[in-house]
Amino acid sequence: MQSNPEPAGRKKPSFIEQARRTQIVDAAAEVVAEVGYARTSFARIAEKAGISKGVITYHFDSKDEILRQVVTRFFDQGWQHMEDRISAAESAAGQVRAWIGSQLEFFGAHRTQFLAMSDIMANHRTEDGSHAYASELAEEVSALAEILARGQRDGEMRPFDPHSFATMILHCTNGVLESWAMDPGIDLATESAALLDFIGHAIGREPS
């Protein structure tokens, strides 16, 4: 998922303006995590940030624009954390482990942002009513499916449908994170190790 450019007609923000926009986006993430997508408003974001609603409308045209930035910025930060770790793995199986492990590691260190991102992605719709992030999620599935397909070609992994397994792996990973986000008492490190072991057995070749 790539960051969206500035809306048409808006000049590139200065350093100070960008800092203010970041403050607003961070406040919005906290509000969504605390009260949910449906109850998030300019008023609540302004109160959390300690600014007026007028300051928000100066920097953003709509609540949707702010929430889009919450998701895009956090997703981009997460991918930056994951990308080097995935690339450093020499085998396809290693890249799958690096993908899942680094994703759990990054999101696990940012509980508030994960709660906000998950809620926004589940509820945010386009004007025609479709899911706003369907294309980004499809790209993520395709990228992981390519790694799985390469693992099969290289003889590391058993036969299965790469796209279906990529979808299931990402859903399982998200499920672990959602359970932990709702119950901080869950040991995410233990759950992560169990998930990686489960996925390893699911995709690996059986010993001959």
UniProtKB/TrEMBL annotation:
Signal peptide boundaries: none
Name of this protein: DNA-binding transcriptional regulator, AcrR family
Keyword ATP-binding assigned: no
Keyword Transcription regulation: yes
Record-linked InterPro entries: Homeodomain-like_sf, HTH-type_TetR-like_transc_reg, HTH_TetR, Tet_transcr_reg_TetR-rel_C_sf
Keywords assigned: DNA-binding, Transcription, Transcription regulation
Cross-referenced Pfam families: TetR_N (PF00440)
Species in which this protein is naturally found: Streptomyces harbinensis
Residue ranges of coiled coil: none
DNA-binding residues: 41-60
A molecular-function term among this protein's GO annotations: DNA-binding transcription factor activity
Domain HTH tetR-type per the UniProt entry, residue ranges: 18-78
